[in-house]
Amino acid sequence: MTLLALCCCVGALALAARDLRHARAATPGGGVHALGRLQRVAARYDRSRPGRRLANRLWRAQVHMSPAAWRFAQALALAPLATALAGFGMDAVPALVSASTAVRVVSALTLYLRRHASGAALDRVAPDLARALSTELAAWGSGGQAVTVAASRASAWSAGPMASHVLQAAAARVVLGGDASSSLHRAMLDSVPRLHPTAAAARVGAVFALHRHDSAATAQALDRLAAAVEAEAALRSDVSVAVAEVRMSAVAVPLLAAATLALLLATDHAALIAALSPPLLPLIGAAVLVVASMSIGVRRLVST
Amino acid sequence: MTPTSLDLPIAMRVGSVVCGTLLMLAALRLAVRGGRWFTPGTLGGRVVVNSARIAARLTPLHRMRDVTSVPTRLALAPDCWAARWIGAGIGADESHPPDLRRLIAGVRLVSAAACAAPVALVALAAFPAPSAVVIAALALAVGATLPDLALGAAARKARRAGVDDAAASVDMLAATASAGLSLPEAMVLTAGHAPPAVAAALRAAAVRRAMGEDARTALCSETQRYGVASLADVAQAVERQQRLGVPLGPELHRIAERVRAEHRTAALRRAARRGPLGTIAVALLIAPLCVAVVIACLVGGIAGGGGL
C-alpha cells in the first residue's frame, strides 16, 4: 500500500511537471510565475560557490548540464529509488536518506571516473583546432586574426562544445588586447586545468606560438601536426581493433562466471552457506583476486 | 547450521564479502595503476635529510653507480615515488648543489625502516625471536632495495614512452627549426612538450651546445645516455646542415615520418603477437579458474545439503 501511495505521488509530480512545461510552451505568458521563480532559484544556485564548484566538475567530466539541472536529475533519480526502498518495507525517512546517499555517491563516482574527459575531448578536437588556425596563417593573417576567425567559424564547422569554448575564450582575450598565443594557451588551461604538456592540444598551442617567427612555416607545421595527431589516433584505433576480442573476453569470462555463481548462490541456500564459510570462503576470495589480477594483466598486456 | 559457519545474518555476510571483494579490487587497481596518491611535504623532506645524515655513516646504503645512475633516473622518472621523496629532500636540504648520493641513501634508509618496522612487529608476535630477527633483516634488505627497483622500473617505462613518442618530438623540433629558431632554442622549446626521456636528452644537449660543444657530439652522447635512439638521426641531420647547409626542417620531417612508420609497424606487430597470447591466458588460466570456483560452490552446496 505504501508503495502504491508513493508511486501515485511520483506519478502526480511527473504529470504536473509535464503539464506545466506544456502550458508554458503553449502560452508564453502562462505559468511563467512559478517557473520564473524556479528558474531564479536555479540561476542563484548556479551562481553560488557550490554551484560553480559543481559546474567545474561537470565541465571536467564533459557533462553538459547546468549545476541546477544536475541536482534536479539527481532528485528525479532519487524519487523512484526511495519509492522502491519504501516498497521493500523501509520507513519513509530512512528510505529517503538511503536513496539520497546512493544517488549522491553514484553521481560523485561518475564525475570522478570521468574527470579526464575534458582533456580527452580537447585532444580529440586538436586536429580541427590546428587546421582552423593554420587556414588564416597560411593566408598571411596575424595570430589574432587566426584566433578570432577560427572562433567565428567554430559554430559553422560544428566543432563541438570544447573547440568552441576554447576558441571563444581565446578570441575574447585577443579582442581585449591579449597576445594570440598566450590567449590560446590560457584558454586551453582554463578549459582543461591539468593539461599535460605532451598532450596534442598543448602541442598545437606551442606550434601556434611560432607564428611570431614565421607565419607560413607555422601554418604548414600546424597542418602536419593535425595529420600526425590523426595518424596517432588511427594507429591507436587499429591496435584497439586488433586486440578487442581478447580485451572483451578477459572481462566477459569472469563476469559470466560471476553471474552464474550469483544465480547458483541465490537459488541454493546450502551452497550460499558453504560459500560463506571456511574453507570455501578463503578459496573463493583467493580465486577472485587471482582472476581479477589476471584479467587486469591480460588487458594491460594487449593494451601496451 | 554447520559448526564452521559464522553466526552473522546471511545478508550481512553477503554484504561484507561483497564489500571486502570490492575493497581488494580497488587496492589491486591502485597498486597496478600507481599514481600520485601521496606527496611528501616539508616534513617528509626533513625526514629524508636527517636520514641522509645517518645514512652517510652506513656503507651498505651507498652504491657505486649512484653518481651516474641517480641523476639520469631522476630526469627520466620525476613522478616516481622515490624521486618525489628525493625532491622533498632537495627542498628541505640547505646544501647547494644538493648531494643526490646522500639523499638517495636517506630515502633507502627511510624505506628500509618503513618496511622493517611493521614486519618486525608481526614477526615478533608470531614467531620465535631468532626467526623474527631473520625475517626483519630480510624486510630491511628488501626495503632498502625498493627505491632502486621503483626508480629503475619507472626509468625503463619512461625510456619506452620516449621511444614511442619520439616522432611527435622530432616533428616539433622540425617546426621550431623551420620557423627560424636557433638549434638550442628549438631544443629547449621542444623539450617543454616532450616525454621525460626526450626532454632530458634535449635539455642536456642544449646545455652542452650552449657551453660550446659540437651539437652532433652532444646530441649523440645524450641520446645514448637517455636511450632515445631516434635522436641520433637528428644529430646526423644537424651535422649535415652544418657541413653542407642542408635545411634542417625538411630533414627532420623526413626523420619524423620514418620514426612514425617504424613505430606504427612495431605497434601493429606487438598487437598481433600479444592478441593470441592474451587468448591463451584467458583460455588456460582465467576460464578454468572461474569454472573451478563455480564447481566448488556447487559441490559445497550439495555436500552441505546432505546430497553427498
**What best-fitting shape of chain A do the alpha-carbon axes yield?**
flat
Mean pLDDT of chain B: 83
Secondary-structure-derived class of chain B: mainly alpha
Major β-sheet profile of chain B: none
Q: What's the total number of strands of chain B?
A: 0
Mean pLDDT of chain A: 84
Backbone shape of chain B: flat
Structure description:
The complex is a heterodimer of chains A (304) and B (308). Chain A is mainly α. Chain A is built from 15 helices and no strands. Chain A is flat and about 80 Å long. Residues 27-31 of chain A have low confidence and may be disordered. Chain B has 308 residues and is mostly helical. Helix content of chain B is 80%, strand content 0%. Chains A and B meet through helix 11, helix 12, helix 13, helix 14 and helix 15 of A and helix 1, helix 7 and helix 12 of B.
Name some characteristics of this structure.
heterodimer, A: 304 residues, mainly alpha, 15 helices, 81% helix, B: 308 residues, 12 helices, flat, disordered N terminus
Brief description of this entry?
The complex is a heterodimer of chains A (304) and B (308). With 304 residues, chain A is mainly alpha-helical. Chain A has helices spanning 2-26, 32-47, 49-60, 67-87, 92-113, 117-124, 126-138, 143-153, 161-175, 180-191, 200-208, 215-242, 244-267, 269-275, 280-303.
Write the layout of secondary structure elements.
The complex is a heterodimer of chains A (304) and B (308).
Chain A: H1 2-26, H2 32-47, H3 49-60, H4 67-87, H5 92-113, H6 117-124, H7 126-138, H8 143-153, H9 161-175, H10 180-191, H11 200-208, H12 215-242, H13 244-267, H14 269-275, H15 280-303
Helix pairs in contact in A: 1-4, 4-5, 7-8, 7-11, 7-12, 8-9, 9-10, 10-11, 11-12, 13-14, 13-15
Chain B: H1 10-33, H2 42-55, H3 66-76, H4 81-92, H5 100-126, H6 129-164, H7 166-178, H8 183-191, H9 196-210, H10 215-226, H11 230-244, H12 248-304
Helix pairs in contact in B: 2-4, 2-5, 3-6, 4-5, 5-6, 7-8, 7-12, 8-9, 9-10, 10-11, 11-12
